[in-house]
Amino acid sequence: MVHDDPPEKAGDKAEDALKGLAHSTRRFAHPSETYWVIGSLLSGSLALEQSLYQIATAHNRPDLALDERGDASRGQELMRGAMADLRSAADAIDKAYAHLNSASQKSGAIAWNPTPPDAAADKVPRRRGPGPKVVDLGAHSRLPSPGTGLSW
């Protein structure tokens, strides 16, 4: 897959995707669905870590760094601080990756019951009134012959 969006647009798309994920993970129909989301987050966390390191590297332009008043010395100090903070954030994402990976391994080993035992009882239709009549078909239990006009 080729990604050639400018960084600003790609960042906006990532933000929208994460907001969508936060919204859609408020409820899961079944816990087994979480495994795939954890896997996607694992992959995404690697990309986020890489992006943070790359953004830190992009900050390494002392020849262009000025503060709001045009002070190069202060601009370079801010630049170095931003680079350090971005690298720290990337390192924290690396630690989060290790936890996500562990969670993924454990989640993948769970054999989720497709229907919770108490939910299965709730899905049994309840009738009001008498139950259905039981009819003994005896000899009449075979299927009608084709062309007789009889149907089931």
Verbal overview:
- The model is unreliable at 139-144 (pLDDT under 50).
- The chain has helices at residues 7-24, 34-58, 72-108, 117-122.
- The chain has a domain at 49-113.
- It is elongated, with a radius of gyration of 31 Å.
- It starts with 6 loop residues before the first helix and ends in a 30-residue tail after the last helix.
- With 152 residues, it is an all-alpha fold.
**Which radius of gyration do the C-alpha atoms yield?**
31 Å
Kindly report the average pLDDT value. Answer: 84
- Oligomerization category of the chains in this entry: single chain
**What general form does the structure show?**
elongated
Stretches with pLDDT under 50, minimum 5 residues:
139-144
Count of DSSP helices?
A: 4
Helix vs. strand class: mainly alpha
**Span between termini:** 55 Å
Number of strands: 0
Give the helices and strands as they follow along the chain: HHHH
> What portion of residues is helical?
55-70%
Strand percentage, roughly?
Answer: under 5%
Q: How many strands, what sense, and barrel or not for the largest sheet?
A: none
